[in-house]
Amino acid sequence: STSSLAGWAVWSLAPSREQSDLRGVTRFAVQPPPATRIDAFDISPDGTALTYVGRSRGAIRLFLRRLDQFADSPISGTDGASSPLFSPDGQWVAFFSGRRLLKVNVQTTAAPILISDDIDAWLNGATWLADGTIIFSRANHGLQRVSAEGGEAVPVTSLSQTPREFDHHSPTLLPGGQALLFTVHAHDGRFNVV
Length: 194
Known about the structure:
- The chain is mainly β.
- Helix content is 0%, strand content 54%.
- It contains no helices and 17 strands.
- The strands form five sheets. Strands 3-4-5-6 form a four-stranded antiparallel β-sheet, with no helix packed on it. Strands 7-8-9-10 form a four-stranded antiparallel β-sheet, with no helix packed on it.
- A hairpin with a 2-residue loop joins strand 4 and strand 5.
- It is globular.
- The N and C termini lie far apart (37 Å).
- 27% of the residues are buried.
């Protein structure tokens, strides 16, 4: 089936002509290639580009759509991609493929670069920090951190045993860059936001 991303809204920082404290909104629909389903997407920090996982006839890969263009472009070397994530400068997109975390420069046609392998990532969100590290969820672990330049993943959080937790996911860096918001899922059925 064909799906589209409707309502991608970009907030303009320029004051409205009618009222200086209001912001303008630009909306447009992104129509993926025919017979393509969108599984996940991310918007660049400056709001000028969108990357998404497109699934078509059994093939899965990343696509890039720029705000000033009318067509989507497949990103080479991203077959099997999931959970795309823009870098803070919008030049790179990180993604998971199997048990590997890779990144690809969306300004060039260069092949993706391996960041880390055998990480058993849980596909429930990640965040790329300004200091060049990526924080992501890992199955049956707390959140993990890895350098975007490559290396081993190291723990950021650990699972509590009282109550027994089985994952930390959906990390989001809060404004100011000093705190991380994430969800804790426990076996007693509770969801906590920390």
